[in-house]
Amino acid sequence: AAKELVLEVIRDRDGDFRSGRSDFGGRLGGTSLDVAVPRFAVGIVIGRNGEMIKKIQNDAGVRVQFKADDGISPERVAMVMGQPERCQHAVHLINELIQTAQERDGFGSALRSTRVRGRSDWTMGSPGPLQEVTYTIPADKCGLVIGKGGETIKSINQQSGAHVELQRNPPPSTDPNTRVFTIRGTAQQMEVARQLIDDKIGGSGIMSNGGFGFSPFTQGPAAHQK
């Protein structure tokens, strides 16, 4: 009876499961493919509030789920589950999104490499290129951003579309009373992520554009420490 209830829920959520129990077994028991997604492209594949990954699942008729993040590897692994031909279609859709992200990131990297000290990408005016900044907050506020089991930082990533992660090995010169996060995404996505972080810590941190100096609108972390 429990199995039938589960199948009913699945049929309600995904029309591709209409043929019922036997097709359900074939779908999930068919194929599982792993797709390596560069970190800078994860936000695009997931989409705002998970809309893009839902669209991939609906269009291809598969299940897509990112494996646990080790916080170190340059790529995240997306697991695609379903019938073989549908999995291949989903992989194609994901690879197209990765290519789009690479093209945008290539433009963004060119901006970063030609930027002079102190110049900010925020003034470029184009929302398209992916950029990267660091955001420094007081160490005692770090747990508020990470959340239990990483739930809060995952929520920030999903809501903003940016990719936010804690730097495991910050430069030796970093103030031990602070923690440094890396934020990647478009200017708009990074601004949303910054606002979400500020909401969590009840203040604001220090934004640094690709290591080229601090933004002029922020102050030192001491101002935000108790």
Automatic annotation (TrEMBL):
Coiled-coil ranges from the UniProt annotation: none
Q: What is this protein called?
A: Far upstream element-binding protein 3
UniProt keyword annotations, A-Z? Repeat, RNA-binding
Annotated ranges, domain K Homology: 29-99, 129-202
Species this protein is from: Ameca splendens
Domain of life according to the entry? Eukaryota
- Gene3D superfamilies (UniProt xref): K Homology domain, type 1 (3.30.1370.10)
CDD domains given in the database record: KH-I_FUBP3_rpt4
So which residues are the signal peptide here?
none
